[in-house]
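Hi L., both proteins are below.
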Amino acid sequence: MGQRPRLRLAGFLVAASALAASMGAAVGPASAAVGAAGTSARSTQLGTTSVPVIVQARTGHRQEAAVAVRSAGGHVGRGLPIVEGFAAQLPTVAVRQLSADPAIRTITPDSHVRFSMRPVGADDFADSAGSPDVASNSTAGDFGVTADDGLATNYPRSTSATTAWAQGTRGAGVSVAVIDTGISPVPDLAGRTVAGPDFSGERNSLRDSYGHGTVMAGVVAGNGTSSVSAPGGAYIGMAPEARVVSVKVAGRNGATDVSKVLAAMQWVGSYHTHHNIRVVNLSWGTTSHQSPSRDPLNFAVQRLWRLGIVVVSAAGNDGPASGTITKPGDDPVIITAGAYDDRQNTSLTDDVVTAWSSRGPTATGTAKPDVIAPGRTIVATRAAESYVEANNPQAHVGSHYIRGSGTSQASAVVAGSVALLLGRRPSWRPDQVKHALTSSAIPINGSGVDGHGRASVPGMLRATVRSAPVQSLTSNGLGSLEASRGGQHVDTVCAGDTAPTRIEGEIDGLCLPWDADTWSGENWSSESWSSDTWSSDTWSSDTWSSDSWTSDTWSGTKFLTAFWGLQTPWWQHLPGETAAAHTSDAPAVPRVNK
């Protein structure tokens, strides 16, 4: 964190005036340069040789820079908002002229990007000028993201995920299961979204009618496709080459039951090898205080952990009171994420734990959360025609994104960070990942409520794990399903009935008796379970649907840990926050504002 490295193109960053000086020596006579570079007729304008360059504008002045290039006889090519600029063909004689333009920060040769500490020399530019024109092949993904990157989202900067990107680590090969309200098809996740089961009854895990899961998937792995040409820059998630697996547990009203979530986690355990699921994101929680040593939810997340899957859970939005960590974030084994406000910058001095981020200790005395991550004013992909989108027009960002806050978003940031780490260290086990995350975290001075501190992607990547402790799995899952609900219930029409039934006591969401002994003893690592009553086909039965699930105590307002609102300066409050909700010691009673 702190000062981030600047973009180095072929090992250098060249000011426009320096480039102009070197071009004269490097390019030579027009006829010779045209032959060496293989430039087309388009490359020769006003009788002068034209070469491929990258023009980086000063912040907010990309349009003015484009006008200046055209006025100088240049041709503006593909937009590169991630570096606040664009590819261009530029007459060599115009470089010196444009170097004085107030809208332009730098002009650099357009060539394949690599990173190096060596200084620029004339040979560097001559090599670029003598290469085929690759301007048409330049993409935002070719560039490492830096302090002057044109990136619209701040959380990849404040966690320094951009450092990992610059080193070629972007989460490729890693799948993150998002157990949530589904993931709608969005361009930023195209080709990297896997349709898992739908336990909500809507029969389509790639339809997010509530609108929470798509946001979390975008925070984890969005690649900014829908904003690549936006004037303000691209909205990119933490691991933009990772895959996301949609495991849907709630429909349009956000209502669900613990038993459906348990079925979803069991599916992940059964199919994790098939989909290479290495991380599970749980951006939700219940208010149960049942001991993790017996609770079915705790048993489930520990079972996944034992299978080699890193589980990341939201801490909850019930702070600032202590003892407010939600389940399964109260589990001693998994990673629990709280939220801090990075105040849309990379400085470490003004960060603060949000007042609404839940605090430990847990009911059994475990210190939580484990780490904190950016969770305030997070912009990510949104689900079209979803409940959240329809009811929060003030939170829309352009045509494809939405702005929200919560430990839901913080959990997704941590899950994306873990995907980056496992992309680099695929052999690491969950205990090693947790050790790397917590041992490298950066504390917020004086907070005392930030766990080990702020998640730092470079710190994780540098961490050594030889001394990583091996955690004991402590839950037997033999506790009460009703106690696991934490007083939150749903009503549904059971098979063969016409009137709704309250899902309460030791019955599951299918209105069947709950047998903790049988469930906790099942073999999660095989696919044999999918033929019994826990299969996704059974849970998607036509005898009921998510529309019949109603609740005045359990819905998106309690279960899902996010709320939505406008971006404001850090000293102002958001809808869902009190005016004092940004200070770590101010009283606040936040509410979820869908």
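That was the first. Here is the second:
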Amino acid sequence: MAIAIYYDGECPFCKRYTALLRLRDSVGSVRLVNVRDDSATLNALQAEGYDLDQGMVVELEGRRYAGADAIHTLAILSGRSGLLNRIVARVFRLAWIAILLYPILRAGRAMTLFALGRERIAGNSVEHQSLFTVFSHAWGLLAYLHLLYYIYYEGSTQVFWTTWMIGGLGAYLTVRARSPRIFVMLCGLLMWDAWQQMPVFSNHTILRNFVLLAIAAAAIYNLIRGRNWSCFMQSFAPIGRCLLVIMYVFGVFHKLNDDFLDPSVSCAVALWQTMPPPLPWLDTEWFRWLAIYGTLIGETAIILCLLFKPTRQAAIITGIGFHSLLALSGYGFYPTFSTIAVALHLLFLSPEAATRITTSIQSAILRGGLGERKGQLLTILWFAGMWLLMKSGNTSSLGLFWLPWVVWLIYLVGKYGRDLNGEKTLGPTLLSRPWIMNVISILFFFNCITPYLGLKTAQSMNMFANLAVEGDYSNHLLLRGKPGPFNYLDDIVKPLSGGSHVWAYATGEGLYLTYYDVLNILERDRNTVVSYERAGMVHENQSYATLESEIDRVLHPRWFRNWFLFRPIDMRSPKPCSLSQ
């Protein structure tokens, strides 16, 4: 009996598997063919529909077996010598076990080849790789800003060793954006760091975490299916684009309220007034109205234009420009949020447009300059400048220091980013073909609509929108009355004394808290003693010990509360723009 095994010579598992089974002891002639060294055989197998990236192909008596069938066939033909050989042969002799375990083996093989830096047989599409390069370039800068945010920004949480590694890898990826392995390592660290940092109130954090969730889901799905990096981008890119559109939709919808449209308190005006000179000099009555309605109309236009090919390039440029302007405001630290938005806008580029950008003469000159000492010195000074400005608390100047990077991107997108005839975005625009991936978009939409359901108010993309939905009241133009069906926002408390940082902040600013949040604070810090007013009654010297039964009855598990967060509540009317937003 003669048997031929066609395998990937770069795969250590494929080379060792036949040796383990000792086929020559039982079948005699075994012909091993490394398809990387035999292009004619590889082309013939591919023409017949066999994918050697999915696993080996076994030819026996004129019939060919691939994947799980190949492993099952080899197990049947294997010898009985050696304990490990007998175990493997016995396990995979059962066809149903081979079918069940094969996706796991295929995923392990794919991870090993990826970790070793070995190219898949089919290779990756140059265009898909270019889109990844453009996205990972922006994602790397986000990671560096992530480090600065957690070190210096007021109200940030503990800095872990992972946070420091994220900053270093992010800086490297910003400059060397063509490394999938560095990208995967960075995303893994970001996910681990996100888990350690929870709970965090910021909107950029929840958006970043959903993007990370999409990256992880796409990676796991394509590893299990044995697919390459191009397939990963096809799965991930539509979800990234959908998250951006949902962000814009709620960025507009939350602002449709009485107080955002009031120039005396609108956040659009407050953010403009803290721009670097000479921009605040335009703070006139007519310009305030322009800032308010310009924000609403501009964000709505970006949403619509992103969805249609003829206007997509203009929408990408306008969206990046809009968020670059936001990053200049000294009202808060926005470059992190703006950089996430920039990265997601870039996913709307067609793969061919991304290739034109990455292979352009301008990009080549920049890469060449970064390889020289002067370029490396300027890069170090740029990263160091952002660090020093963040340390000084001058977030507006940091935005100005960050701005040349965005101007460069806008120039490249403007010159090369137009979709030519026949060019399309990677995969469907907003829906990923693996249907399970779209659950992430649905969850993000639900996260953003929670304030109107009477659920959480933090991390809902309620970004300085003057929105008020607490205490049986809503200032939203379309959703008046009490939010529901849940009632977490009905029961509000006025802090009086004691408590942690959040409690002291709310007390000093005259803000309120939800009762659920009060119980959450006391459960997390069991030594805290507070006094507050609830439903007209003053409760003094309350702590975990005095409210333990109430805490056990009301609160969800901590892992759930890491996502279930409430902003301090400003009960003034009209509601001014404040950091409680």
